[in-house]
Design goal:
The complex is a heterodimer. Chain A is about 0% helix and about 45% strand. Chain A is built from no helices and 9 strands. Chain B contains no helices and 11 strands. By secondary structure, chain B is an all-beta fold. The chains are: A mainly beta, B mainly beta.
Chain lengths: ~110, ~120
């Protein structure tokens, strides 16, 4: 049972828009801590996709965007491409655990 | 180019110890916090522990699942971070990733901006 809750899977056709939710609580996202997102392509290490709720590192396409509100956050991917098929994880800090917490991960399938 | 290379993984019996190393390059190692994240086979990511840079005290934080058994240290002169794992359990079997951590001094939180390729630790008799 992960501290942050994500849907196990989402899917979309090429060119479509999908969103992945990340729900937390008052000790993490709701406490004001930032949410960060990672993309893990099959067989590879995770890579930072979004940091500080909505910021993209250099090299990440602007098709990826993040937002945060109250105790939840969302990752949106527009103009879906086959190479976006991957696992996506949200991460934040939890004050009651005094450490980082991850969502359980969401598998994105591009139909 | 930032590079993180883990080493030291392998097969170990329950109750034994193992030390992982993470050799960093491409940035001023002593200026950054470092962290370890693991991923059990077919499972999601789990944060293991974190060490601040020396300017921020070099102090450590650990997940409850490893506290008291795992220790993170660093050698800034050699740009290496270590994960000492004692009293290993079968549930510690995972790929262990070394990460560079971007640390918010104001709030004490962090995220992981660069990741190594990971090293597999298998705990089994």
């Amino acid at each position: 049972q992960s501290v942050l809750t994500q849907p196990p899977s989402v899917s979309g056709a090429p060119g479509q828009r999908v969103t992945i939710s990340c729900t937390g609580s008052s000790s993490n996202i709701g406490a004001g801590y930032d949410v960060h997102w990672y993309q893990q392509l099959p067989g590879t290490a995770p890579k930072l996709l979004i940091y500080g709720n909505s910021n993209r590192p250099s090299g990440v396409p602007d098709r990826f965007s993040g937002s945060k509100s109250d105790t939840s956050a969302s990752l949106a991917i527009t103009g879906l491409q086959a190479e976006d098929e991957a696992d996506y994880y949200c991460q934040s800090y939890d004050s009651s655990l005094s450490g980082s917490v991850f969502g359980g991960g969401t598998k994105l399938t591009v139909l | 180019e930032v590079q993180l290379v883990e080493s030291g993984g392998g097969l170990v019996q329950p109750g034994r110890s193992l030390r992982l190393s993470c050799t960093a390059s491409g940035f001023t190692f002593g200026d950054y916090a470092m962290s370890w994240v693991r991923q059990a086979p077919g499972k999601g990511l789990e944060w293991v522990g974190f060490i601040r840079s020396k300017p921020y005290g070099g102090t450590t934080e650990y997940a409850a699942s490893v506290k008291g058994r795992f220790t993170i240290s660093r050698d800034d002169s050699k740009s290496i971070a270590f994960l000492q794992m004692n009293s290993l359990k079968t549930e510690d079997t995972a790929v262990y990733y070394c990460t560079r951590a971007a640390y918010y001094d104001s709030s004490g939180e962090w995220y992981f901006d660069y990741w190594g390729q990971g090293t597999l630790v298998t705990v089994s008799s």
